[in-house]
From TrEMBL:
Functional description taken from the UniProt entry: Catalyzes the condensation of isopentenyl diphosphate (IPP) with allylic pyrophosphates generating different type of terpenoids.
Gene3D superfamilies in the cross-refs: Decaprenyl diphosphate synthase-like
Upper taxonomic lineage: Bacteria, Pseudomonadati, Spirochaetota, Spirochaetia, Leptospirales
Protein name, as recorded: Isoprenyl transferase
PANTHER family in alphabetical order: DEHYDRODOLICHYL DIPHOSPHATE SYNTHASE 2 (PTHR10291:SF0), DEHYDRODOLICHYL DIPHOSPHATE SYNTHASE FAMILY MEMBER (PTHR10291)
Source organism of this protein record: Leptospira sarikeiensis
Domain of life, source organism: Bacteria
Alphabetical keyword list: Magnesium, Metal-binding, Transferase
Molecular function per GO: ditrans,polycis-polyprenyl diphosphate synthase [(2E,6E)-farnesyl diphosphate specific] activity; magnesium ion binding
Active site: 17, 65 (proton acceptor)
EC annotation from Swiss-Prot or TrEMBL: 2.5.1.-
Cofactor requirement: Mg(2+)
GO annotation (BP), single: polyprenol biosynthetic process
InterPro entries attached to this UniProt entry: UPP_synth-like, UPP_synth-like_CS, UPP_synth-like_sf
Amino acid sequence: MASSKKENPRHIAVIMDGNGRWATSKGLSRSEGHRAGADAIDRLMDSSLALGLEYISLYAFSTENWKRPVTEIRSIFNLLVEFIDSRLDKIQSRGIRILHSGSRKKLSSLVLSKIDRAADLTRKNKKLTVNFCLNYGSQEEILTAFSKLMEERKRKSVSPQKAVSGKELEKYLYTYPLPSVDLLIRTAGERRLSNFLLWQSAYAELFFTDTLWPDFGDKDLKEALSWFGRRTRKFGGLENG
């Protein structure tokens, strides 16, 4: 059934693209671009709280990003550790809950300990959930979820002839039990999903902007929300039901 009610999306996903291009345009290193991108995350959290948004998923590091130079990868994870250490108290005081979606494989013990501490400390917070998709790839997520589901069915002696439902599979996704993505934003002019939340974004509205991620701010978020508010979401049905 179509939904004509104009309201904020419950779950926003963001592909934070353009850190490197932003740095290059200013004669800076790519690591400085990632640092500026972290500041943009700060602004996004502040704006999201002010607007009463519920869930934000951020594409922080994909499974494909391991192909990047080792120096850049090290810089990204060092920045992540710094981000958590320097901002966790503020995040906690503002009622923000931190989650991690992605594979724990290949992540260092230091990175995992920081993520786990942030998630544990903020687990009861309810004002805003910020889900960091780190070492995340949607195709891998779906395959892993299906494998876990099959293992669980085997343990419970469920007939292999019984069809798998979408709701059954979703319970094994990294993002469970977050709601489906309503609005997906990608910055820096690219127009592809890049293996990000493919299952969760099945009916998401896709908003593309040329703004580089380090320049993304309150005005850009409000523009995306305004655009979302003008969309008619039919979910495969007709506008009038």
